[in-house]
Amino acid sequence: EPEVTQTPSHQVTQMGQEVILRCVPISNHLYFYWYRQILGQKVEFLVSFYNNEISEKSEIFDDQFSVERPDGSNFTLKIRSTKLEDSAMYFCASSEISEETQYFGPGTRLLVL
Amino acid sequence: RKEVEQDPGPFNVPEGATVAFNCTYSNSASQSFFWYRQDCRKEPKLLMSVYSSGNEDGRFTAQLNRASQYISLLIRDSKLSDSATYLCVVNSPEDDYKLSFGAGTTVTVRA
After folding, report:
1. Cα–Cα distance, B4 to B92 (Å, whole number)
2. Mean pLDDT value of segment A25-44
């Protein structure tokens, strides 16, 4: 069964450093998403991406965040200058079409020290 | 007002019991509804979509009440493996189909 994959599974970084989280969506999916979940809190939407551009972003997704689809398979989330409060689990998801089920990757646990 | 609200539980039930819980959503324009399951420190996994007429998948039954804007999930004959957090998830076309998650209802099934 096809699945979304994410790397790395864990990332520890110093405050102020840049991090790039990588995702490989399911191959025939066209819509890609990033969500985050701070420990003990609910899953929160960050950004959706379609046709090589952002289709929607939340207020969390400020100028420190960016997304890119550098090639035909990867979808990345970059945090330019990490803050302590960026520590969370980051989930990538993809769907075939926008209103269909979104499938989640296993997540990257980011810890900012 | 939160977009999606759930009773956090926990619901502690013995094996074989039936457990049910609800979720309410605030956006009346919401069109798609899901129950996801999340195990500790893992990704959300789709349990089932929720259809207007209600639907069943094995021991799981989901109901949607659009007039009252709530969704329910019922688990029959609970198994130990049903222990998890159940996430009520809603999406709306006006929000470009981003998923709005509830905080989850924790269910613990004991032997």
Report:
1. 12
2. 94
DSSP H/E element including A48: strand A43-50
Enter the tokens of residue A96. Answer: 């075939």
B92 touches chain A (CB under 8 A): no
Comparing alpha-carbon positions, the chain A residue that sits nearest to B30 is A99
DSSP 3-state percent helix, strand, coil across chain B (nearest 5): 5, 55, 40
Q: Count CA atoms closer than 13 A to A42's CA, side-chain side.
A: 21
DSSP letter string over B53-73? T-EEETTEEEEEETTTTEEEE
Which residues does chain B have within 8 Å of residue A41's beta carbon, measured at their own beta carbons? Answer: 103
Sole residue written with tokens 């998830």: B89
* Tens digits of residue pLDDT in A86-112: 999 999 999 998 767 899 999 999 999
- Scanning the structure block, which residue is given the tokens 């309410």? B24
